[in-house]
Amino acid sequence: MKRADSYGKIENCDVLLNYQRTQFSLFPEEPGARDHKEVQNMNKYELAVVVSAKIEDDARAAVIEKVKEMITRFGGNVTDVDEWGKRRFAYEIQKMKEGFYYFVHFESDASVPGEIEQRIRIMDNVLRYLCVRQEA
């Protein structure tokens, strides 16, 4: 190596550029030790959906099937669907006094509830919805 010039550069630095760092271990590596699978942290959620009582039974079932399909499309796993049936509201919602209540239990990662809520918000026959994370 030569001496640095007035600007602090090293004129001949081939030794520094060709240096490669090697990893050294005292223990031999096990086969497949570097094949790490990404582990997703699946949280449990409960989605409450209130569907309009003015629509037919088939249309109500189609709304819940669409919600279940959305959950699975975004990588969630539907574990249970509870149908509470027709219940009276505490106050009128869109000039309606009653609606059908459904509770969908599912497991997914943290990004799925936001995606589902974004799409449920624009569904016509869904009056109210609420998605909460359940304690483990």
Topology:
Elements: H1 14-17, E1 43-52, H2 57-73, E2 77-93, E3 96-108, H3 112-120, E4 126-133
Antiparallel strand pairs: 1-3, 1-4, 2-3
Function: Binds together with bS18 to 16S ribosomal RNA.
Keywords: Ribonucleoprotein, Ribosomal protein, RNA-binding, rRNA-binding
Protein name: Small ribosomal subunit protein bS6
What kind of sheet is the major sheet? Answer: 4 strands, antiparallel
What portion of the residues fall into strands of 2 or more residues?
Answer: 35-45%
CATH class of the domain at 43-133: Alpha Beta
Summed up, the helix count is 3
CATH topology of the domain at 43-133: Alpha-Beta Plaits
How many angstroms does the end-to-end distance come to? 62 Å
Chain oligomer state: single chain
What percentage of residues falls in helices of 4 or more residues? 10-25%
Please compute the radius of gyration using only Cα atoms. 29 Å
Poorly predicted regions are: none
Total DSSP E strands: 4
Strand order of the largest sheet: 2-3-1-4
Shape: elongated
Task: Briefly note the structural class of the backbone.
Answer: alpha+beta
Mean pLDDT: 83
CATH architecture of the domain at 43-133: 2-Layer Sandwich
- Along the chain, the helix and strand elements come as HEHEEHE
CATH superfamily of the domain at 43-133, by name, is Ribosomal protein S6/Translation elongation factor EF1B
